[in-house]
Design goal:
By secondary structure, the chain is an alpha+beta fold. It has helices at residues 15-22, 28-36, 115-125, 159-170, 246-253, 310-314, and strands spanning 2-5, 40-42, 58-61, 86-89, 93-98, 140-141, 150-156, 174-183, 190-200, 205-209, 217-229, 232-239, 278-285, 301-303. The N and C termini lie far apart (65 Å).
Length: 318
């Protein structure tokens, strides 16, 4: 028998989700059977799978040891780099300035040295995260940015913050602003571009259409031109929807692709620029509903100003 006392990071989730995370190798059919026969109990009693757990609850599991995965003694994230650029940090979250070239999450080419791996190592070495003491929570990124784009990424340090931030991001109560350099000069110095996006999963590329099509998703991209120089425009972009490659593909669709964007722009124009000139430079917390333990962040904004391509733009070197 193994018992677990529900901590802050396990509270407010369904009973069955906690069981699945704690004993991932336990088949669902057995889980339901063990719940019926009281081999898995909550506070000494039989409980419904939909029961929400509270801090301090006791979960007892009278099941074979073979179903429990042995904790790692050496963690992969300890092989991630220590390099991390923190814009802001408190007891609930970290705002990170992700550099161009760094992955947010593992992929087929890089498993260890990712932004989320660096966050875990950072918190582990600060004694704020210990996998041996967690049954179902791990520090997580709330938003993500493409490998070749830099900017602010939010990391949640506890389960309650993660739930709130995910909800706020989904409900558009966290606003994301980008700076980018686009080819050409636009007639409208501010506007909201509208369209419909379809993603080709196999080729990892999207296409923008002016009218709705089957399987398309509506997109809205708000922009204002900050300055113009040498045939290029510096724009601030506010994402009203957040789709794959939205900014890059949307400006390309109106004939003004991002400088350095080989996928959606001109390879001939971008001989000198090997990376798209795009940066997620500002985040604004604009809560219109209760934010629980994160309410203190309401109406606050955070930004970075050391954006790698700005000097070149103003010097006419783009």
């Amino acid at each position: 028998m193994k018992s677990f006392t529900i901590g802050k990071n396990e509270a407010n989730q369904r009973f069955d989700k906690f069981i699945t995370k704690t004993v991932p190798s336990l088949p669902k059919s057995l889980m339901y059977k063990y719940l019926r026969t009281k081999r898995i109990k909550l506070n000494g009693k039989k409980a419904e799978i939909s029961t929400k757990l509270n801090e301090g609850d006791l979960v007892e599991m009278y099941i074979n040891d073979e179903f429990f995965v042995k904790k790692e003694s050496v963690y992969d994230f300890m092989r991630a780099s220590k390099e991390i650029d923190i814009v802001y940090e408190d007891e609930n979250l970290i705002l990170l300035n992700k550099k161009v070239g760094l992955l947010c999450h593992p992929d087929n080419e890089e498993y260890v040295d990712t932004l989320v791996g660096r966050v875990k190592r950072y918190l582990y070495e600060k004694n704020e995260y210990n996998p041996d003491e967690e049954t179902s929570f791990t520090p997580s990124l709330v938003n993500r940015i493409d490998r070749n784009t830099g900017g602010i990424v939010i990391a949640a340090k506890n389960a309650e913050a993660l739930r709130i931030l995910n909800k706020k991001l989904k409900d558009r109560e966290i606003e994301k602003y980008y700076l980018c350099v686009i080819e050409g000069v636009l007639n409208k110095k501010s506007d909201t571009l509208k369209g419909y996006l379809i993603k080709n999963e196999d080729k990892n590329i999207v296409k923008i259409y002016s009218k709705e099509k089957e399987n398309s998703k509506e997109i809205k991209t708000e922009y204002r031109i900050i300055d113009e120089n040498n045939g290029f425009s510096l724009a601030e972009v506010h994402l009203l929807t957040g789709r794959t490659h939205q900014i890059r593909a949307h400006f390309s669709s109106i004939g003004h692709p991002l400088a350095g964007d080989i996928k959606y722009g001109s390879k001939k124009t971008n001989k000198e620029n090997k990376r798209q000139l795009l940066y997620s430079y500002k985040i604004v917390f604009n809560f219109t509903t209760d934010a629980g333990c994160l309410d203190y962040l309401n109406n606050k904004e955070f930004s970075v100003d050391n954006i790698w391509f700005l000097d070149d733009f103003y010097k006419g070197k783009i």
